[in-house]
Amino acid sequence: MKTLYVKKGNDIVEEGGSSDCAYIIESGSVEVSKTMGPGERKVLGVLQEKDIFGELGLIDGLPRTATVTALEDCAISVLTPEAFTALSKRNPQALVPILKILAKRLRATLKIVEDLEDDVEKK
Q1: Is the dihedral of CA 44, 48, 51, 53 positive or negative?
Q2: Number of folded domains in the chain?
Q3: pTM of the model
Q4: What does each C-alpha distance from 34 to 15, 39, 95 come to in angstroms?
Q5: Which of 31, 37, 54, 69 could lock onto 22 through a cystine, CB 3.0 to 4.6 A?
Q6: How is 78-89 classified by DSSP, letter by letter?
């Protein structure tokens, strides 16, 4: 895998940008944010060493759903579709952590939707 070195404050991926790979943080930390409206940005979370992001783009190739910005200087491994395919053929068990991350993030999203629905019902 190729390693990217990203300076603090630089975007690694931008919301709406093209996607075809995932990233694994080898060192440093990043902030994940989403545009909510004109000039409004919401921080979704902070990821650190050994965390993965961009996995949706690796799987479906659709535009990025969030912006990821380096909070400090980072070293980040790039997981390309070719490396992902080779890994899945060579060691399918290695995909389990990615599936767990997808499930965890889906559950978190469903919780947010549920909370929003509760807020609407109370009004």
Answers
A1: positive
A2: 1
A3: 0.81
A4: 7, 11, 26
A5: 54
A6: EE-HHHHHHHHH
